[in-house]
Write a structure and sequence with these properties.
The complex is a heterodimer of chains A (644) and B (260). Chain A has 644 residues and is an alpha/beta fold. Chain A is 38% helix and 15% strand. Chain A has 18 helices and 21 strands. In chain A, the strands form 6 sheets. In chain A, strands 5-2-1-9-17 form a 5-stranded parallel β-sheet. Chain A has a 5-stranded antiparallel β-sheet with strand order 11-15-14-12-13. With 260 residues, chain B is an alpha+beta fold. In chain B, strand 1 and strand 2 form a beta hairpin. The chains are: A alpha/beta (644), B alpha+beta (260). The complex binds flavin-adenine dinucleotide (FAD), iron/sulfur cluster and FE2/S2 (inorganic) cluster (FES). Chain A: Its EC number is 1.3.5.1.
């Protein structure tokens, strides 16, 4: 298989405009003869479904929550980037492009990232027109804040609830199309297989989560906007239901999976408090605008603090180590996430961590409160401070927050070309579900941007090009391909229900998460990865022998839902390990201990690894096949990333 | 060691949980003891512990809705000791922590109760009526593309902030569950106010309020009798001012549409 990224010819800045001109169009009267399935109604899916509906296509949209407004996107806190340069601080499309490629440690495709930066400005206009209440200055114009990995202020925000407000905007646009009858919405419905006819994606098989009924839906094209797979680790900042099943089942049908080991560990999360813990809570990166990260200067002070012999306020200024400011004077507390996370781990590994477990560092607002006053800080971060207090029972206005890195985002995902089409014709992937724009590390406030760029402004154009070239005949769900896929789904379900073993699904999920965190987390090495691979295989075998799923298919059965998802995580986890093992370099969030600079920074190997690793499924337990898409950098110079 | 009280002892509790097989079955409260609950656990983590125990003994675990566990998605929806989202003000079920309970407590856990929110199973209810109300008019009619530059619509900060306050509704339904008439007025008013306050939403304000209120009635929510129970239980503090605004919007819309 030759991976063709289909990047248009011509200078970087003209590619997208030219491409939009060159793509084939479906004439307005014909659009209603085409059906599009959109799986997922988070930012990436809701925006796409609404826009398809506006254009005149017939859309069926699916989500597993009871309402599209509850997609995981709702939880995004800090903000969304756009190269508006409203602050007149030197921002531009090129700078956003450059920051994103550099932030991603030069493992993203230039042309896609440039397009993302270009359409970023349209997103803000669109959202404001929908009534999204972004933060404003007293003069009535939009406000901005800074995020990690950037030296300009280009992040638009809505208090600490940016994802919520953007999703409600997309949800409202979706609702309008539902009311017009252009979109039919299927909530509480989970996609469990992809249906292919003559090598093309032509539909999906779903399970109605209330009745258990397994049903088929046919269409001319399928868009997956099903989010990321961070929950492989069990503990992450993702919502409990976030999963990889739709993407994984498409992978099993032939869609290549790219850079699976590129996961983002976010530096500022509330530390784990006990083994009953079900998820981790993010404290938005925007807090690093005003919060200062530190640990005690000496191991001894840290030990006394952990034992409760002294309190944090007893530690004098000169006994504190503001290690990010010390090591990276240019970016200070606003270094990119991978750098901030790795440094927190280093401090804790040295024995200077805080909290009872020693697995935490401080994020301190005392200076900011002194400088700006408590009300100003409350206005910026009030809901985050409240959330912290609710969870930890501590007041962050009085005592520094304790934070530790946690799994947050997955840069890897289904491989897509410039048109966001996977290696299966007619199957598209958008939002966190694809791999396309963030390389080996995503910058803060860029996921919301990408999800909405894909959904509002990219896939509505590119899908037209595909549909215009195919006949509009519909395929009946009586077609044998649909029946085969339905039987496949029922076979998995029946198997899961018939095992009647002794260990719960959560039990397996937690065990997998621990393997992944210990060996494929913030730091990886060959020996550990080989061990992890063997452990995952053992665990997967045990799962299929000993999992306990109660109840039946024909009912609301949350255990069965989870079992399907964990079965897929047990395969995806192994692929992540394979990918991490094969990539013998460090880049962004992928830190191989064998490859580091003397200052413990990630050491890339551009000579041998400046490519996208796209994996082909060859059967459970078989070694997957690697395909490479070489990355060409014509507009940025590959350098050792420096934030000093 | 997240909590400020590392010495807090694990608790033993008695739970009385509503069990109902499906929407047509009769339901009942079933008693379950739980032991060794850490005060630092969230309420839903306590439910996880119970469910794991049930599963291990081969019983059907308790179904409940949840997703973000951060108080933002609006999925969680438990009626705890007679109060939607439990005893803490301004807190969703998922953000309620066990430190607000004591060793030996009995806790009654039920689903939202409202004719417009039928029970699917156990503690899971059908809130699709809320989506249909939003579909009736909770939007600004703009298509993707062809909109003005964002800064061409300046909005005074005070207005933007007020609209934002209304826009934070998480669509959980606690207001309905708290109301003796099962009225959805607080929920509807939040959207109506947000869009009526903003210049973008003003164009369609009349049809919006009429259509959303009409849909609310079709869905079988009760009438508002001004008890204020909704706002008192709303986890994100949606204020009663929004209801006043909805009334003004509604009256002026009706007055104008009758003139036609
Ligand atoms: C706590 C938190 C804070 C964040 N803050 C920021 C931020 O400030 N800025 C930023 O840019 N990014 C942020 N992110 C990242 C960002 O929120 C996500 O990457 C982004 O929202 C993903 O959007 P999406 O549309 O791709 O997927 P999601 O929002 O995850 O939506 C997935 C959709 O797919 C559906 N789905 C999944 N599987 C199936 C299936 N099998 N069948 C049917 N439906 C399915 C779900 O129901 C859902 O509708 C944050 C993430 C977290 C966890
Ligand atoms: S108004 Fe409050 S209680 Fe009612 S749905 Fe919205 S957030 Fe929930
Ligand atoms: S689970 Fe999302 S608000 Fe409670």
């Amino acid at each position: 298989m030759i991976l063709d990224s289909n990047i248009p010819e011509g200078p970087l800045a003209e590619k997208w405009d030219k491409h939009k001109f060159n793509v084939k169009l479906v004439n307005p009267a014909n659009k209603r003869k085409y059906d599009i399935i959109v799986v997922g109604t988070g930012l990436a899916g809701a925006s796409a479904a609404a826009t398809f509906g506006e254009l005149g296509y017939n859309v069926k949209a699916f989500c597993f929550q009871d309402s599209p407004r509850r997609a995981h996107s709702i939880a995004a806190q800090g903000g969304i980037n756009a190269a508006k340069n409203y602050q007149n601080d030197g921002d531009s499309v090129f700078r956003l492009f450059y920051d994103t490629v550099k932030g991603g440690d030069y493992r993203a495709r230039e042309a896609n990232v440039y397009r993302l930066a270009q359409v970023s400005v349209d997103i803000i206009d669109q959202c404001v027109a929908q009534g999204v209440p972004f933060a404003r200055e007293y003069g009535g114009l939009l406000a901005n804040r800074s995020f990690g990995g950037a030296q300009v202020s280009r992040t638009f925000y809505a208090r600490g609830q940016t994802g919520q407000q953007l999703l409600l905007g997309a949800y409202s646009a979706l609702n309008r199309q539902i009311a017009y009858g252009k979109v039919k919405m299927y909530p509480r419905t989970e996609m469990l297989d992809l249906v292919m006819v003559d090598g093309k994606a032509r539909g999906i098989v779903v399970r109605n989560l209330i009745t258990g009924k397994v049903e088929s839906h046919s269409a001319h094209a399928v868009v997956l906007a099903t989010g990321g797979y961070g929950n492989v680790f069990f503990l992450s900042t993702n919502a409990m239901g976030s999963n990889a099943t739709a993407a994984w089942r498409a992978h099993r049908r032939g869609a290549l999976f790219a850079n699976p080991c590129f996961t983002q560990i976010h530096p500022t999360c509330i530390p784990v408090s006990g083994d009953y813990q079900s998820k981790l809570t993010l404290m938005s990166e925007s807090l690093r605008n005003d919060g200062r990260v530190w640990v005690p200067k000496t191991v001894e002070t840290a030990q006394r603090l952990r034992k409760g012999e002294i309190t944090v306020n007893d530690i004098k200024e000169e006994d504190r180590d503001y290690y990010l400011e010390r090591k990276y004077p240019a970016f200070g507390n606003l270094v990119p996430r991978d750098v901030a996370s790795r440094n927190a781990k280093l401090m804790c590994d040295e024995g200077r961590g805080v909290g009872a477990s020693g697995l935490a560092v401080f994020l301190d607002f005392a200076d900011a409160i002194k400088r700006e006053g408590q009300p100003a800080i409350a206005a910026k971060y009030g809901n985050l401070f409240d959330m912290y207090a609710k969870i930890t029972d501590e007041n962050p206005y009085e005592k520094p927050m304790r934070i530790y890195p946690a799994v947050h985002y997955t840069m890897g995902g289904l491989w897509v070309d410039y048109n966001l089409m996977t290696t299966i014709p007619g199957l598209y992937a958008t939002g966190e579900c694809n791999f396309s724009d963030h390389g080996a590390n995503r910058l803060g406030a860029s996921a919301l941007m990408q999800g909405l760029a894909d959904g509002y402004f990219v896939v509505p154009y590119t899908i037209g090009d595909y549909l215009a070239k195919m006949p509009n005949e519909r395929i009946s769900t009586e077609h044998p391909a649909f029946k085969e896929a339905e039987q496949n789904v029922m076979a998995i379900t029946n198997k899961l229900l018939s095992i009647q073993g002794t260990r719960t699904v959560d039990d397996f999920h937690k065990a997998l998460g621990l393997i992944m965190w210990d060996y494929c987390g913030m730091a990886r090495n060959a020996e550990g990865l080989r061990f992890a691979k063997a452990e995952i295989r053992k665990l997967r075998d045990e799962f299929w022998r000993d999992v306990k799923v109660t109840g039946v298919n024909e009912e609301l059965n949350q255990t069965l839902e989870k079992a399907h998802r964990v079965a897929d995580f047990l395969e995806l986890g192994e692929l992540m390990v394979d990918d991490a093992l094969h990539r013998e370099e460090s880049c962004g969030g992928h830190f191989r201990e064998e490859y580091q600079t003397p200052e413990n920074e990630a050491l890339r190997d551009d000579e041998n690894f400046a490519y996208v690793a796209a994996w082909e499924f060859t059967g459970t337990g078989n070694q997957p096949m690697l395909h490479k898409e070489d990355l060409k950098f014509e507009n940025v110079k590959l350098t050792q990333r420096s934030y000093k | 060691m997240a909590g400020s009280n590392p010495n807090a002892k694990p608790m033993d509790l008695t739970l009385k949980v509503w069990r109902q097989k499906n929407k047509d079955a009769a339901g009942q409260l079933v008693t379950y003891p739980v032991k060794g609950i850490s005060p630092d656990m969230s309420f839903l983590e306590m439910m996880d512990v119970l469910n794991e125990n049930l599963l291990r003994s081969g019983e059907d675990p308790i179904a409940f809705d949840h997703d973000c566990r951060e108080g933002i998605c609006g999925a969680c929806s438990l009626h705890i000791n007679g109060r939607p989202h439990g005893p803490e003000r301004g807190t969703t079920t998922c953000q309620l922590h066990m430190r607000h309970f004591k060793d030996g407590d009995t806790i009654t856990i039920e689903p939202w109760r409202a004719a417009a929110f039928p029970v699917h199973k156990d503690l899971v209810v059908d809130r699709s009526a809320f989506d249909r109300i939003q579909q009736a008019g909770g939007y600004v009619s703009v298509n993707t593309g062809g909109v003005p530059d964002a800064n061409e619509i300046p909005i005074p900060k005070t207005i933007a902030d007020k609209a934002f306050d209304a826009a934070t509704c998480i669509q959980c339904g606690a207001c309905v569950a708290a109301c003796k008439n099962a009225s959805a007025i607080l929920f509807v008013s939040a959207k109506v106010s947000q869009l009526a306050l903003l210049p973008q939403g003003k164009v369609e304000r009349q049809t919006r309020v009429e259509n959303m209120v009409a849909q609310m009635e079709i869905e079988g929510f009760g009438a508002c009798s001004n008890t204020g129970a909704c706002a008192a239980e709303c986890p994100v503090g949606i204020s009663l001012e929004n209801i006043n605004m909805l009334r003004r919007e509604y009256i002026s819309a009706k007055a104008t549409s009758e003139n036609f």
